[in-house]
# Entry
Amino acid sequence: MPLHKLLLPFALSAILLQAQDLKEFEKRVTEFTLPNGMHFIVLERHEAPVVSFHTYVNAGSVDDPKGRTGLAHMFEHMAFKGTETIGSANWPAEKKAMDDIERVYDQLEAEQNKLSHADPEKIKALEAQVHEAVEKAASYVVPNLYPRIIEENGGVGMNAGTSEDSTDYFYNFPANRIELWFYLESERFLHPVYREFYKERDVVREERRMRVESDPQGKLMEQMLATALAAHPYRNMPGGWASDIENLRVRDAEKFFATYYVPGNITIGIVGDVDPARAKTLAQTYFGRLKKGPLPEPVKTVEPEQEGPKTTQIESPAQPMEFVAYHRPDENDKDDPVFSVLSGLLASGRTSIMYRDMVRDRKIALAAGAEESFPGGKYPNLFFFYLVPSLNHTTDENEKELDAIIANLQKQKVDAEALSRIKTRTRANLIRQLDNNASLAQMLSEYYAAYGDWKKLFTELDEIDKVTADDVQRVVKQYFVPENKTVARTVLPAGPEGAKQ
# Structure
């Protein structure tokens, strides 16, 4: 056996012991909150001269205003467009051109809002003027200057992402460039510039065409969420609905920013070769410039209790698939650890129940899996299953087998060995993530925002360890019931194309 394989268990054990010792980990963490409410979590790791930064904004697509779905996602696309001083060849002229876009767009909207009384020729002329104004503003843009500055100074992994619950911005910098990060990141929030907004709006619209309208899986997912969730905004995917995207305006983004991008709604994780005292000084110098604002209100809409099974379908000649969802409580519920264990038992790896039964033994599925909290966790959500039938097998056949697996869990308690294996795997998964500075910066900020304490990252392992076979059986009986179930599947088209399948 190679030496590295012999040493691996010992190395893993050492990491495990280190990770389990929360007190030792805590010694390397410094937390502080600026007077404006922005929270920082700094973890020292001096093994390499690199620092990972993660900015977590506690606002995602669930916070999109009515009729403005896709708005939170727009900020991901605007993230690295620059500032008033970075990215413009002539800011005063560019600002005037951007204002001209809005002025003409207001006229266009006013005419469109006349509906049947609108003048088509006037609309056509105003659309041409909007296009001309957009092109003029674009002539002042220095493309990609903001990301180029980052790359030229050794920055890597620059990206952003939008989920239902948050919008995240992140990249890594050499340790001797951290002040540049504080300057660049704070300037984006201090002086937001909606440069090339309408160009990026078109990109977002095209993404929807590719990921939803032209993708059977994306289309089915959208249909499933809109069926399972009648009222709560989790029913809207982050990309937004087509007509909403097409009508997004800069003024919508400005209002959203003023509401949700207040310092108290932002958490920043910093992990790597960093001096916490200097990080705090830099944070005060740069982010301290941001004005304090009231925290945004949470979503007030509560999903009504489902009173019977729901089914929906879309036609597609592609590979058949089926999604099954059951309503479950939010991530702060006492049973959240039980759902984590249940997800592991059902769908984590080749020893999981669904893989062994449906993929390996019966061979009725090409893939069968689950996600414990979907599409987000901040509010009550869904325990989600996906089923992809193998050749000569059907979605009905797969669903019946999943129903049988669930029924068996309701009748018979899981054995102690399987329960122990899942708990060990959960702990190991965390350990693997702890080895990566970028992942750790993300998790520290995310857990603080979600639970008010990053230490939940470790204490939830203790909660999972306490989960019993009785807990698993109780949760399956309580939540995995027909009246709480939604099924979405693809079916072959009714025409000749479907008949050939």
In short: The two ends are 50 Å apart (CA to CA). DSSP finds 20 helices and eleven strands in the chain. The domain at 310-492 is CATH 3.30.830.10 (Cytochrome Bc1 Complex; Chain A, domain 1).
